[in-house]
Write a structure and sequence with these properties.
Elements (H helix, E strand, L loop, with lengths): L1 E4 L5 E5 L2 H4 L30 H15 L3 E5 L2 H4 L9 H16 L3 E7 L5 H4 L8 H17 L5 E6 L1 H9 L12 H25 L4 E6 L4 E3 L4 H24 L4 H6 L11 H5 L6 E4 L4 E5 L8 E3 L18 H14 L4 E5 L17 H16 L7 E7 L18 E3 L6 E3 L1 H12 L1 E4 L1
Parallel strand pairs: 2-3, 2-12, 3-4, 4-5, 5-6, 6-8, 7-9, 8-11, 11-12
Antiparallel strand pairs: 1-15, 9-10, 13-14
Length: 445
């Protein structure tokens, strides 16, 4: 066996989200989210999911067995605020109280995400992310969560992957609420996401100076197909559109000038104080990164003059169809560190979907996932050698779960879930992860 040492101060954990695992969608006062009424490709829903709401103690025991140092999970806004008057639903927060206490008793640090896409249906009926009122609504929700959990939860994420919520939910219609809006409305949705992030940061700051807070972003990372000057410039243009669009408001207090030129007539109204709120300093940056992008110059693609050309490369692919190329993490994180100075960086999601079939003994031999995790974690740790402040890694996901528009067809978990019986089975990758965490060594077999 070969191995790379995992630094003692490098946090190792796993991640999930509320709607993907909790189930119990009508229990203890919870009302529907936009995902409860969204039609997935195969008709699946999150009514039961992994039944984590009732089995959280079993799942925390699994985390303890794996040796996780931290667990990233999200709060379900419809559990906390089931109705539009935003009166606090005590039984909803009671569940997260119990979960946090269970984690701490297992010596696992809770890292909480305030919003992971499950917008309350009552908010969507008021216009959802198109309605600027959502910013004040989100602040009320954030304050309530902090008041209950802020004495024990020290690390908070504001929004998870606002790109997905904004673009897949409101432009392509692939995610809830399933809308296909014009660009002018899309940019308004993006702006309101960023404002909600800012008001959540403000809520954390006002609650306690001891808490840490930051966003979770998932930029598509465009790399030049070749070393030609044209392709490099094309990749820089794509970077502005796909990375700068989100990072420059957060870390520079302005939208990229190039985007302002492209979309001048469609830009959202920016009120006084907006950019100051959006760019409030954070303590860390969470990044969900799974796969690279490759672009090349194409003059006909005006005004951007680039095209996505990843299909030209014969790279391995996961069950999601995502290409596997671990070095893209070094490319992405080094540039983000250099361009935006976000401070400590955590990989808050990274993993792969595989078929994960059980053998005759009920075991799952997912050696390919093990290698995927190893090679990507190695990239993240190696960046510390060149001055990039990478602090930790959360594998996606702890459990097989409801994979949004794909329902239960795609399995990302370290732990296999039999959705008929809810039986949990450690996959080979989970046992490998456990060994790595126990010995602080990134084993390569």
């Amino acid at each position: 066996m070969n191995f790379r040492k995992i630094p003692d101060d490098f946090l190792m954990g796993a991640a999930t989200s509320a709607y993907q695992i909790e189930g119990a969608v009508d229990k203890d006062g919870r009302t529907p989210s936009i995902w409860d009424v969204f039609q997935t490709l195969n008709g699946d829903n999150g009514d039961e999911a992994c039944d984590h709401y009732n089995r959280y103690q079993e799942d925390v025991a699994i985390m303890r067995d794996l040796g996780l140092q931290a667990y990233r999970f999200s709060l379900a806004w419809p559990r906390v605020n089931p109705t539009a008057d935003q009166s606090l639903n005590k039984p909803g927060l009671d569940f997260y109280d119990r979960l946090v206490d269970e984690l701490l008793s297992a010596d696992i640090e809770p890292w909480v995400t305030m919003f992971h896409w499950d917008l309350p249906l009552w908010m969507q009926e008021k216009g959802g992310w198109q309605n600027r009122e959502i910013v004040e609504r989100f602040r009320v929700y954030a304050d309530q969560c902090l008041a209950r959990l802020g004495d024990r939860v020290k690390h908070w994420f504001t929004l998870n992957e606002p790109w997905c919520s904004a673009i897949l939910g409101h432009q392509t219609g692939e995610h809830a609420p399933g809308l296909q809006l014009p660009l002018k409305d899309i940019l308004k949705v993006v702006h309101n996401h960023l404002l909600a992030h800012g008001t959540a940061v403000e809520a954390v700051r006002e609650f306690s100076s001891e808490l840490k807070v930051g966003p979770v972003l998932n930029p598509w990372i465009p790399m030049p197909l070749t070393h030609s000057e044209e392709d490099i410039l094309a990749a820089d243009t794509a970077w502005t559109e796909h990375v700068g669009w989100w990072f420059e408001p957060l870390y520079k207090g302005e939208y990229p000038a190039q985007i302002s030129q492209w979309w001048e007539s469609d830009l959202p109204p920016v009120e006084e104080g907006d950019m100051e709120l959006i760019s409030r300093p954070c303590d860390f940056l969470g990044l969900n990164l799974y796969f690279p992008g490759f672009v090349r110059f194409k003059a006909e693609e005006s005004p951007h003059q680039y095209e996505d050309c990843g299909k030209l490369l014969d790279l391995p692919r996961t069950e999601m169809g995502w290409q596997v190329y671990p070095p893209f993490l070094s490319y992405a994180l080094e540039r983000i560190h250099r361009f935006y100075s976000p401070g400590p960086i955590y990989i808050t999601e990274n993993g792969c979907a595989l078929p994960d079939r059980c053998d005759e003994l009920g075991q799952v031999h997912d050696r390919w996932r093990q290698e995927y995790l190893r090679t990507h974690i190695e990239q993240v740790i190696s960046l510390r050698d060149v001055g990039v402040d990478t602090r930790g890694y959360f594998a996606w996901s702890l459990l097989d779960n409801f994979e949004w528009q794909y329902g239960y067809e795609k399995r990302f978990g370290l732990v296999r879930v039999d959705y008929e019986t809810q039986e949990r089975t450690l996959k080979g990758s989970a046992k490998w992860y456990r060994a790595c965490l126990a010995d602080r060594k990134l084993y390569a077999f």
